[in-house]
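Homework help board

Subject: predicted structure for assignment chain

Our instructor gave us this sequence and asked us to write out the predicted structure in token form, then describe one feature. I got the tokens but I'm not sure how to describe them. Can anyone check?
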Amino acid sequence: MVVSDGMGGHDHGEVASREVIAALREYLMSPGTFGRKQTIRSDDTYPDEAPTVVNTIATAETDDEEEDGPTQDDVPNPAVTLVRHAVEYANSKVFEENQKRKYPEGTGMGATVAGLWLSNYEDRLVVFHVGDSRVYRFREGDFSQVTRDHSMIQQWRDFGERGAQPSQNILTQAMGPAANVVPDVALVDDQAGDCYLICSDGLSNMVDDAVLAEKLGKATEENLEEIGDELIELAKHNGGKDNITLILGLVVA
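My token output:
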């Protein structure tokens, strides 16, 4: 399940978003990757004004103490590695298109991406994202945001909201403007009854978490589409002018 939210105006956003989806499908569903068939969806409408992308990567401090050597935990997980490479490949395809159109690096069309993938390598889900499209989970009454936005306002919050609040639409990473991205990719345990929401900021900026939690808490196999329609209408009712894209998924036994 994947959402890609285009940026760079309607035409450019559509190209970038569809290129991301096509490249992910090509990479993950090619022979030898042991991918299970997934539902993949791209949004069809795009904002006239593109978010600004600031190519910054936060680095974590490392412990200078000598390590005892690699352990089993240090061995890269094949499913995580595969998805990371798929996202990097998708980024390269959009970047190549920007280069063909003579855009300087750091500019041009782009897209966010967020999704969940299940392969035969793992019984667990692989969650991945670049940008500010999000993955949420509702489990046994607990609602949580699984991903953390790649945005200046998220960094501002992470560092204690010091200084002036940055604009909502300044991204620190997106698919396409730069030659390289560093996607967040991780394994998440899933269990029967979990409800996942993957969405663009056109939804998350317009509907409060409490409302999202309430809707996801009512999800069943029979009413997922109805709940999705309700969330879109809520975003529009609350003044949503950006594109609104979402996918709902329910884990069944």
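Reply (TA_rk): Your tokens look well-formed. For the description, you could write something like this. The helical segments are 10-28, 78-100, 152-158, 201-204, 209-217, 224-237. That's the kind of observation they're looking for.
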